[in-house]
Every structure is written in structure tokens, then in C-alpha cells.
Amino acid sequence: FFPILFGTFFQQLYNAADAMIVGRFVGKEALSAVGGGTGTVIQVLVGFFVGLSSGATVIISQRYGAGDAEGVSRAVHTSVALSIVGGAFFMVLGVLAAPQVLVWMDTPSDVMPHAMGYIRIYFFGTIPSFFYNVAAGVLRAVGDTKRPLYFLMVSCGVNIVLDIVFVGWFQMGAAGAAIGTI
Description:
It is a single chain. The protein is mainly alpha-helical. About 85% of the residues lie in helices and about 0% in strands. It has eight helices and no strands. α1 (about 1-25) runs antiparallel to α2 (about 30-35) and α6 packs antiparallel against α7 (about 145-170). The longest helix has about 35 residues, at about 70-105. The chain is globular and about 55 Å long. The two termini are about 25 Å apart.
């Protein structure tokens, strides 16, 4: 229970760290880009990935519990393939649809350039994001809840450091925060 609970906390910390660092080093328009409409789109995307990987986790854990090694192998391979194909689909869809989605969300014109850069870069990282969620689900399905949490904790720390480097030192704005997250 606790590794999954803390994992959820650290996933939320990614976006909070982006917003805090961008707000501190760039300004209110970039902060609005990271914490506003793009944050909502990202939460929907991550929620979708977590939901799909949870479904895969159920199938894998059932096969693992039944001692069905071939079923576990098929389910893991299917999940990995889904993460790659699904991640590629959402990457292309997100990059192409981002301008219209941000318009539908009434993104202010002064925020739009920051939001566009942030969300497009974020969408370029959907394959590894989806893959992480599936890989973490596979580990959880076989009873290892700690390693996904440790990986997420380290990744979150690296994200914060990279945010400071890209946003603070290299002054890349909201795009720097997206690169740090990816």
C-alpha cells in the first residue's frame, strides 16, 4: 500500500516542481503555461496511462499467481508493445492537436507560446512515460512494489535538478521544465 501511495505522491511532485521552479525563475505567463491548461491535459494523459497499466497489472498478476509462465510472458510482451504503440500514437496526436486543445481551453495569448512549447515537448516523452507505467505495473504484479517507487523517487530528484539547470541556468523557460521532466 505505502509504496503505491508514495508513488502517487512523487508523480504529483513532478508537476509541482515544474510549476515552482518555472514560477520562480521565469514568471507568471510561464507558470500559467506549466500549471494551467497543460497541467490538466497532462493529468488526463498520465491518468490514462496509469489506468491502462493497472489493467495490464491485473492480467499479469492473475497469470503469475496461477503459475502460468507463458501467460505472464504474453501479457508482459503485449503490455510493452501497447506502451510503445500507444505512446507513439499519443505522441503524434498530442503534438499535432496541442494548438487546438490549448485554444479550446481558452489559453491566454500571452501564455500560449510557453504552453505550446511545454506541452509539445511533454508529448514527445509519452513513449517513455507510458513504458515506465507499464514496467512499474509489471513489477507490482509480481509483488515488487518497492523498486518502482525507488525509481520514481530518483527520477523526481533528477527532474528537480534538471529543472533548475534548464530553467534557472540555461533560461529555457517552460520548455526547459518539460525537457527536465522527460
